[in-house]
């Protein structure tokens, strides 16, 4: 018999444990706290006798059964090997419609959208990619993500793909959902109408106000911000656009960035850093700014601004995970239920690995894809088992983004030490935020 991993929390004279194996917060009394202290000192055979000084045998057995029913006590198991399923099928593809862009963002991880290989996807490859998805899924709900570079440089191909998917829907009893990440500079009346008609979930890359976006420039060096604001107005006013902000040394004030984008009526506002752009001192401030954002997030909730709080996507998602005790063992969908397909039909775990030849896992023309080795590295690498399995934030961090891990440490499931520290800071703050919520606030957030 073993216990779940746990940490102790104390708030307003109340005591809690956070069972991080089951993502569960449990309020405890003094007796349970003493029992937990004994558990950390003695073997199971000694526990009943040691606990007899402050609880009866009946109370002891009742406590043990209660802890078993909550999953806090369980038979010994080796946790690192239990989640991998090699039979998993994909349900989503990211199409790199063009490896090129009309912007030249200075922090772009994709070499200004080229991914070291300039070109565009042709119609045959796009259709072959759709056929490949249909043949390699066990789901009737499929997702197509239009990506680049700047995907709207291939608006003609987007229209062709959507029409092709509609034909496939009628003959295969499928339902396709579409999404797109764009810089917003090419939105116009025709594109807007097409997005609305086909319910394309669209996200704009924008980093805050004019000064924040000084890294987002056209190929000729001219500022793109004013064009983005003008061209996105129609869809923003309809509440149909999300905004993704990238944090760099120019816009570390995350609360200010969020507040500005919220005034522009974006429906969701995920925020994350261009990690390689932040030096040591800048990263320290970035940690502080994350704390400021969490405090502001809490203020939104306490002030009844629930819809606004939900727009702070990464924090609301984590809070929701705590509330519903949701275990998440895999960092993302990369190679697990989604893949990226480049302009030549080559398949990669996700768009960020495009052009990394050693992570080319297949090609749509050969109808061949090998995802198991990539996934096994995520699940079974010894570094995950030894460094992450006993971490209280493991289901929040999920060992981090595989691409960022690879870039920072050379290992897919080993985050950098500073990213690891940041994740622990964020999640600990959110645990205390959650136990401070009133019943009415919890109901407003999650019911």
TrEMBL record:
The keyword Amino-acid biosynthesis does not apply. The keyword S-adenosyl-L-methionine applies. SUPFAM superfamilies: Radical SAM enzymes. Transmembrane segments: none annotated. Residues 97-241 form the Radical SAM core domain. NCBIfam families: rSAM_more_4Fe4S, rSAM_PapB. This is Radical SAM domain-containing protein. It comes from Finegoldia magna.
């Amino acid at each position: 018999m073993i216990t779940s991993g746990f940490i102790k929390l104390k708030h307003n004279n109340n005591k809690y444990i956070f069972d991080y194996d089951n993502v569960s917060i449990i309020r405890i009394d003094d007796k349970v706290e003493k029992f937990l202290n004994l558990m950390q000192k003695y073997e199971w055979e000694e526990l009943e006798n040691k606990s007899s000084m402050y609880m009866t045998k009946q109370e002891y057995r009742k406590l043990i059964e209660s802890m078993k029913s909550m999953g806090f006590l369980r038979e010994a198991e080796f946790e690192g090997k239990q989640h991998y399923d090699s039979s998993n099928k994909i349900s989503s593809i990211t199409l790199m419609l063009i490896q090129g862009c009309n912007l030249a963002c200075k922090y772009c991880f994709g070499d200004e959208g080229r991914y070291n290989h300039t070109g565009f996807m042709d119609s045959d490859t796009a259709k072959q990619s759709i056929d490949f998805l249909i043949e390699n899924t066990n789901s009737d709900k499929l997702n197509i993500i239009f990506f680049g570079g700047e995907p709207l440089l291939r608006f003609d191909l987007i229209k062709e793909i959507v029409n092709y998917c509609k034909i496939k829907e009628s003959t295969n009893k499928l339902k396709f959902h579409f999404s797109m990440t764009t810089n917003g500079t090419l939105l116009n009346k025709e594109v807007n109408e097409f997005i609305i008609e086909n319910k394309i979930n669209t996200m704009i890359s924008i980093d805050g106000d004019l000064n924040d976006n000084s890294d987002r420039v056209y190929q000729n060096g001219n500022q793109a911000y004013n064009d983005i604001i003008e061209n996105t107005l129609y869809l923003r006013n309809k509440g149909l656009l999300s905004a993704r902000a990238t944090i760099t040394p120019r816009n570390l004030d995350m609360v200010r960035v969020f507040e500005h984008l919220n005034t522009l009526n974006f429906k969701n506002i995920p925020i994350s850093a261009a990690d390689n752009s932040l030096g040591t001192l800048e990263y320290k401030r970035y940690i502080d700014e994350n704390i400021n954002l969490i405090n502001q997030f809490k203020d939104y909730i306490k002030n009844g601004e629930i819809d606004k709080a939900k727009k702070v996507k990464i924090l609301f998602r984590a809070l929701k995970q705590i509330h519903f005790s949701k275990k998440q063992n895999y960092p993302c969908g990369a190679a697990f239920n989604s893949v990226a397909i480049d302009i030549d039909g080559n398949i990669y775990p996700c768009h960020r690995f495009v052009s990394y030849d050693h992570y080319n896992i297949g090609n749509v023309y050969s109808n061949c894809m090998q995802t198991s080795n990539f996934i096994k590295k995520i699940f079974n690498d010894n570094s995950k088992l030894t460094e992450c399995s006993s971490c209280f934030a493991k289901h929040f961090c999920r060992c981090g983004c595989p691409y960022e891990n690879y870039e920072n440490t050379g290992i897919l499931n080993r985050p950098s030490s500073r990213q690891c520290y940041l994740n622990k800071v964020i999640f600990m703050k959110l645990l205390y935020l959650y136990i401070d919520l009133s019943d009415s606030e919890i109901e407003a957030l999650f019911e």
